């Protein structure tokens, strides 16, 4: 786990340093996932057509395949669209969290408010820099997530490691 955590941190640092490359790679990765998922959805729909709703499942499969092909054909345009969707999500989710913190009287609502403010700020920053932010945002977010995930694994591995300073119980 320690080695995996270290490798994840290194990959995250690389992703932050080369955010534009990671943005394009992630769009291409998503394109292939959509195409493969669409094919599986179509096969499943055809194999189980007697259960009804064949048309809807085929339409959903075609949508996934078409969107995947469009992303493959134009990963830069795909990154621009995905970044705008991501910015919109952050703005809307941030507002929802802020409203929830104001309306709900729950313990720890200050953290919900803080989360909402940070999420809203991220959305505003990404949206404010759009479309130029499209070339680095997705890669940067992936990199930061990898770094944090890697550090969490490193800390977990160190916490689980047996201590040599405490005698083993008999």
How would you characterize the overall build of this protein?
The chain is globular, with a radius of gyration of 22 Å. By secondary structure, the chain is mainly alpha-helical. The chain has helices spanning 2-17, 19-47, 54-73, 75-103, 109-128, 137-160. α2 packs across α4 (75-103). The model has no long low-confidence stretch (mean pLDDT 88). The protein has one domain (2-160). The chain is built from 6 helices and no strands. It is 81% helix and 0% strand.
Q: Share of helix among residues?
A: over 70%
* Rough outline: globular
Percent of residues in beta strands?
under 5%
Low-confidence parts: none
Order of helix and strand elements from N to C terminus? HHHHHH
What radius of gyration results from the CA coordinates?
A: 22 Å
Number of helices: 6
Brief rundown of the structure:
This protein is mainly α and 170 residues long. The protein has helices at 2-17, 19-47, 54-73, 75-103, 109-128, 137-160.
List keywords for this structure.
single chain; 170 residues; mainly alpha; 81% helix
Write the layout of secondary structure elements.
Elements: H1 2-17, H2 19-47, H3 54-73, H4 75-103, H5 109-128, H6 137-160
